[in-house]
């Protein structure tokens, strides 16, 4: 049995004074935001490790380890997870970091499928649960201010000063250094019909190089009127697919995205396929995949749960997903459509919620998993934790942290407490959300796990 490591700090007891993000009951009304935060000089990325003591041995077993009883850690003081030994820190402080007019009860990372770190790793995007946006220094972990941006914020892949976002039918950009707000592209004239919104609908991301964007347009009834692929480099809509003649149940799409290398447009449809069937170009359902020209539509999954795109160890574009039919974490090759189970998910004790982050494109072949449920006790090795898995059957698993987040599915505010862990491109910094067992409150905080450079080579 591996030695368990105790926390380096005795945590201060804090008095409580009082999260894909899902679509609200009605789709949002948007208006161009006003200019705001300006950072004339970006802060440096972290140069020294948060924890100065040596990294203990990584935990790779499958024993059931209980989360220890501990007070909520104070903000911005590093510590080690008492069970798994990972270096951690609570980044946010819901009592001190919010703007005066922000009614958010807590702060969190945006979503498992969204990159929270900017191009050079110097800034972190943080969300107030009332759809407000903040920037933090990735080095000092201090809040730098609130951003005047709208929906679907996505960092530029090349310019650390730039963040893109959607506003009605426009793709916008905001420059942190100058405070300049720019309309990058107005899609209204590129699309069929009258549209009120063009976006990924919360969970999509551009290609890894930031060039290709998979988007969808919605009409005044919030039905999808078109899919489109946009080339940011040439400022060109490469392809559109008119959906206005489709039946209404085929025009309801949960989200869209483009694959990491920009080769495939993916539509996560609300309409499930019947058991034993897949969607076709003529009869779409489940997970639909098209080429970059929105042609050659094919169904790859009859229904799709939580997932993320990733690159495998050979650099192939894959989808890592929760296979709802077989209760496995599985991997799907986007070119061949071949699926492979990786790890079974044991639902016999609790209804485990699971999110996947494949954003570590600089370390292909690995993804991050985070889980949650409504039971403070762990019944399986996966329960209520953050862990990394290798993308091959029987591959390595590295367990990183307990989340201490209690998520009761009957509590509306507990959506925000889903950890929804996301990873940076180098797989050295991980963000996740926790309510520290304050179920039903929305009082969440964002935590960071730091891993040493080259840690994967240390795993047996």
Question: Can you tell me about this structure?
Answer:
It is a single chain. By secondary structure, the chain is mainly β. It folds into two domains: 50-145 and 316-460, no CATH class; 148-304, Methylamine Dehydrogenase, Chain H (7 Propeller), CATH 2.130.10. It is built from no helices and 29 strands. The protein has strands at 79-80, 87-90, 107-108, 123-128, 132-137, 143-147, 151-155, 162-167, 170-175, 181-186, 195-199, 212-219, 224-231, 236-242, 253-258, 264-269, 287-291, 298-301, 307-311, 317-323, 328-333, 339-344, 353-357, 366-372, 385-390, 397-402, 422-423, 429-434, 445-450. A five-stranded antiparallel sheet has the order 1-2-29-28-27, with no helix packed on it. A four-stranded antiparallel sheet has the order 3-4-5-6, with no helix packed on it. The protein starts with 78 loop residues before the first strand and ends in a 10-residue tail after the last strand. Mean pLDDT is 92; it is low at 1-35.
Largest sheet strand order: 1-2-29-28-27
Number of domains: 2
Number of helices: 0
Report the mean per-residue pLDDT as an integer.
92
Portion of residues in helices?
A: under 10%
Main sheet makeup:
5 strands, antiparallel
Taking all Cα atoms into account, the compactness measure Rg is 21 Å
List the helices and strands and how they pair.
Layout: E1 79-80, E2 87-90, E3 107-108, E4 123-128, E5 132-137, E6 143-147, E7 151-155, E8 162-167, E9 170-175, E10 181-186, E11 195-199, E12 212-219, E13 224-231, E14 236-242, E15 253-258, E16 264-269, E17 287-291, E18 298-301, E19 307-311, E20 317-323, E21 328-333, E22 339-344, E23 353-357, E24 366-372, E25 385-390, E26 397-402, E27 422-423, E28 429-434, E29 445-450
Antiparallel strand pairs: 1-2, 2-29, 3-4, 4-5, 5-6, 7-8, 8-9, 9-10, 11-12, 12-13, 13-14, 15-16, 16-17, 17-18, 19-20, 20-21, 21-22, 23-24, 24-25, 25-26, 27-28, 28-29
